[in-house]
Amino acid sequence: MFCFLLFFLFIFCEKEKITTAKDLEIRVRYFNLEKIGWKSRTYIQTVDDIVFAATEVPIQYYLLKDFGKDNLAKIDSLYEENKRERILEFTFQQQEEKDLLTKSFTGLDYTDAVKYMSFGLEKDFYVVTSKKDTIACSGVTFERNYKIAPYQRVLLFFSGIDPNEKIQLVYTDSLFRKGTLKFKFKDPNTQIAL
Questions:
Q1: CA separation (Å) from 50 to 62, 150, 160, 183?
Q2: Which residues contact 17 (CB under 8 A, 6 or more apart)?
Q3: Cα angle 105, 111, 116; round to 5
Q4: Which residues have a Cβ under 8 Å from the Cβ of 39 and sit 6 or more positions away?
Q5: Residues 6 or more apart from 82 whose CB is under 8 A from it?
């Protein structure tokens, strides 16, 4: 009887937890170019009807895109110089594929929402390392799709992070007012043979 009473008190005296995000979903994403590829995990959270997805993009992928397979020595050299940089792709999508930058989602005029995605979003993101260091976002590139694609995507840049360090991306959503979302990156990108 005493155990039942303790259990009852524990359940009903605990503070109410309000969570609007569904469980974190993880998918694998492949970055392939010129028969060289990498595998990366995409971490997805849904809050109300908006899907937020975060993926770490291999730096080598962008270097290969810029310099081509014929310059592998140059790519390796540039990677060594920039291996403490991290690029994260962050995607916003409404489940019914409605345009998220309209006033009904942001409370802003469409032009102001685009400006925020382009210039104001940087302050909403930071990374926490496994050593509990906080790294501010050093830049954002908003990929405009001019209402062709059913999502909005940004590239986030972070500097000074060990390439083997496990990180957690923290997003404080000021644009859609969905709270703070955390994406824990557990595994580094893996190069795969094609």
A1: 28, 12, 31, 15
A2: none
A3: 70
A4: 28, 29, 30, 189, 190, 191, 192
A5: 59
* Tokens 């849904």 belong to residue: 46
Residues 6 or more apart whose Cβ sits within 8 Å of residue 179: 20, 21, 47, 172, 173
- Note the pLDDT of residue 36: 65
- Cβ-based neighbour number of residue 140 at 10 Å: 19
Rg of the chain on CA atoms, in Å: 20
- HSE (side-chain half, CA atoms, 13 Å) at 132: 0
Secondary structure class of 193 (helix, strand, coil): strand
State what percent of residues in the chain have pLDDT above 70. Answer: 76
Residue 33, helix vs strand vs coil: strand
DSSP 173: E
Q: How many CB atoms lie within 10 A of CB 29?
A: 15
